[in-house]
Amino acid sequence: MKQALAIVVLGSAALGAWAGGDHGDHGSSMKDMHQQMEKAHKDMGADHPAAGAKMAVGRPGNPAKVDRTIEVVMGDDMRFAPAQITVKAGETIRFFVRNSGKVAHEMVIGSLKELKAHAEEMRKMPGMKHAEPNMVTLGAGKRGGMVWQFTEAGTVDFACLIPGHFEAGMRGTVRVE
Length: 177
Prior knowledge:
With 177 residues, the chain is α+β, with helices and mostly antiparallel strands. The protein has helices at residues 2-19, 30-44, 112-124; strands at residues 59-60, 68-75, 79-81, 84-87, 92-99, 105-110, 135-138, 143-149, 154-159, 171-176. The chain has three helices and ten strands. 26% of the residues lie in helices and 31% in strands.
């Protein structure tokens, strides 16, 4: 899983750099980045959530089969409201996420170990842009969302991984009953 997360981060960084117009600053051509991403997806195999694998934190949910919607507000106080959420195992949740702050924030779902590793990568590459089914990144005053299915009982974490935000305590938990 750790390898898959690193591959997702690296593959996403390449795509984010290209999509953001930063086509040549990383010493790679578009073809090189495409090849890196293809290799990353191949290496992920069945462990990648998009491939339908069951993960301890859940999997991307079907927007047509949402059980309920939960609003989450992210603020410049480096907090989520609510910071503790309770769901049922098997439940598909639409997170309606709002950034009430004046700086960018994101909500990323994962295990605490994965989130810490990803936060470290974000500190090394602060301009990294990514878009995965378990995350939503929003500019100041923006709204967005994601749909996630919680497949197993236990605790699932979420956090803002923008450099400094996680370290300031911008994280929360989902209790899956």
